[in-house]
């Protein structure tokens, strides 16, 4: 499920539960007999500060989505993780918690970056196909190549990648890429699959779309544009040019 402001509200909710976890951990420490008055005073100050932040972030999340963010079931396991992480954070030595935070943050950054390098559908360059007497000329962004033989059916392939809605930062986002141009079993062109490590990470759905350009449909002197909108590959226009 994805709706307006969902991503921001989801991340604010994660932050809220992290604060609640830290507050709970601080309360548990205050209740122990070994906690001195000075430490209790420090923890109470921390609790009041984090409580204010938790209330503010929760209020913003609710206002942004009118409470609809709570209807997304996929975020609840992550809420539990942030809550537990906040509780145990106060019990782990600083060196240990620093390592855990560093590894977790690095993982989220790498996964997010690997996903976000794929362009939005509005930013995808069209694949231009131009027919001459003896060849097809293809152009995609700054790349251009040609095929001397114009016979056979040409297949275009694109992929749409959807991030699991519970992932912080990128959950629910969709990105895509035009990946390959084929003819029979021959690969005519393949775009570089940047950061392909993301494709093996759980929580990313890949959906492929294909489009066929039958033999004989492209007459010499004509060109067309192949585009991808995340749902399907389609031909936008066919125009004639001077040969």
Short description:
The chain folds into two domains: 6-91; 121-240, no CATH class.
Structure, described:
The longest helix is centred in the N-terminal third of the chain and has 29 residues. The protein folds into 2 domains: 86 residues; 120 residues, no CATH class. The protein has 243 residues and is α+β, with helices and mostly antiparallel strands. The chain has a 5-stranded antiparallel beta sheet, with no helix packed on it. Strands 6-5-4-7 form a 4-stranded antiparallel beta sheet, with no helix packed on it. The protein is built from 4 helices and 9 strands, in the order ααααβββββββββ.
Secondary structure blueprint with pairings:
Elements lengths: L5 H25 L6 H29 L10 H14 L4 H23 L10 E5 L4 E5 L2 E5 L6 E10 L10 E10 L2 E5 L13 E10 L8 E7 L4 E8 L3
Antiparallel strand pairs: 1-2, 1-8, 2-3, 4-5, 4-7, 5-6, 8-9
Helix pairs in contact: 1-2, 1-3
